[in-house]
Amino acid sequence: MTLVLDHCQDEDFPEMMDVAFGTMRGMSAFVNSVYPHNMTAEGRDKHRQTFLYLKSVDPSQRWLKVTDTKINRIIGVANWQVYDGEKPPEDELDGPAGTWDTPDDKEWAQAMFRAYMEDRRRVIREAKGPVMCLSILCVLPEHQYRGAGTMLTKWGADLADEIGAECTVESSLAGRLLYEQQGFVLQRHYLLKVPEKFTDRKKERLYYMLRTPKRLPG
């Protein structure tokens, strides 16, 4: 087997940005709003720095990679967030100066982010036990259907069963079947709601899914 699952190191992040944003191909309205200019080298480097900073200050972060050892290349990445104890703050989206081109672009990104996080934050807020959130999962298109996505998802599902954690994910249509195979159940299919002033901008539809652990906490 040429696919190997491992935790990401800081030096992996430049390649990981290429995997994550290369998989999206600039087609996600949510990703483009929150991570502008993600198809440029300069934009990816800015987001790399942001992700590394969050990794250094947020103990919930679990970054994973799948490497194809035959070609010595990272082909898939995931970010699981594990909350077992203190609940995370519900902060407004922000970024370094110059992240967004205009104040309207930043306001749109913040509105998209609030809508995206609404269900997840509610679940975390109401949870009596641990919660795990699959925030990012990307596999390069030319390497999909080889098992990398399953490896990245199963890692979290196995840990969730071990600690008795409920899992959440905001899925695209493309990812829905993968998550269902690991026990996630669809809760709702919805359009991210933003203020009326942004109705002319591209919309994003998502599938909000939950997974109940096989072993309940306590």
Plain-language structure description:
The protein is an alpha+beta fold. The chain is 39% helix and 24% strand. It has 6 helices and 7 strands. Strands 1-2-3-4-5-7-6 form a 7-stranded mixed β-sheet, with helices on both faces. β4, α5 (148-163) and β5 form a beta-alpha-beta unit. α1 packs across α3. The longest helix has 24 residues, at 103-126. It is globular, with a radius of gyration of 17 Å. The mean pLDDT is 95.
Q: What secondary-structure arrangement, pairings included, does this model have?
A:
Layout: E1 3-7, H1 13-24, H2 29-34, H3 41-57, E2 61-68, E3 73-83, H4 103-126, E4 131-139, H5 148-163, E5 166-171, H6 173-181, E6 185-191, E7 205-211
Parallel strand pairs: 4-5
Antiparallel strand pairs: 1-2, 2-3, 3-4, 5-7, 6-7
Determine the structural class based on helices, strands and strand pairing: alpha+beta
Low-pLDDT windows of residues: none
Number of DSSP strands? 7
Q: Mind summarizing the main beta sheet? A: 7 strands, mixed
**First-residue to last-residue Cα separation:** 38 Å
| Helix/strand order, N-terminal first | EHHHEEHEHEHEE
| CA-based gyration radius | 17 Å
What's the arrangement of strands in the largest beta sheet?
Answer: 1-2-3-4-5-7-6
